[in-house]
Amino acid sequence: MFTVQYFAFGVALLLFAWYMAGLYLNRARSQQLLGVIREAIRQAGTRTTVKWFGRSAFQVDVGEPAHPFAAFRLLCLLEPRDFPLAQLWNRLRGRKDQVMIQVDFVRAPAEPGQPAPGSLGIQGLTGAVIRAERPHLQLTLQVGRGGEQAIAEAITLATRLGGRRS
């Protein structure tokens, strides 16, 4: 005998299972991204610290940035895998795990502007802003599975824009 109560209980059970699976998947994804970020960020400096904002966001700060950086921060916002409606909404908008890089250079860039993200040749790059004031550079990436190399490419781009001397 099917009743509204059984239906409501089934939906609640399904949402709870989705929530638990989403938490597990986000935890695994955050560890994967953090490993990739730690490897890629080595060219930006040393003494990195990680600050967690709940279960789905973290920030990596470089304590001793290498030249040409005066400061280097990376914020990662994970896809809401634990909430199906939000995940669906983000997928419809083309959003994946989002990585935002903010860089202060030793010297302000000579040519501020907003280059077209597609012109910079980095897969998943959706935003790039170069300014005379701090933060001098802001890059926004949508990083899906298999696209993690874009993080290292974005850091290399930041290094190039800062004018690192070899």
Features:
single chain; 166 residues; elongated
* Rg of Cα set: 19 Å
Query: Which structural category fits the helices and strands?
Result: alpha+beta
- Fraction in beta strands: 25-35%
The CA-CA distance between the termini, in Å, is 75 Å
The chain-level mean pLDDT equals 91
Can you describe what's shown?
It contains three helices and six strands; from the N terminus they run αβββαβββα. The protein has 166 residues and is α+β, with helices and mostly antiparallel strands. It has a six-stranded antiparallel beta sheet, with helices on one face. A hairpin with a 3-residue loop joins strand 2 (57-65) and strand 3. Helix 1 crosses helix 3 (149-162). The protein is elongated and about 75 Å long. The mean pLDDT is 91.
What layout of secondary structure does this protein have?
Layout: H1 4-40, E1 45-52, E2 57-65, E3 69-77, H2 84-92, E4 97-105, E5 125-130, E6 137-143, H3 149-162
Antiparallel strand pairs: 1-2, 2-3, 3-4, 4-6, 5-6
Helix pairs in contact: 1-3
What's a quick, concise take on this entry?
By secondary structure, this protein is an alpha+beta fold. The protein has helices at 4-40, 84-92, 149-162, and strands at residues 45-52, 57-65, 69-77, 97-105, 125-130, 137-143.
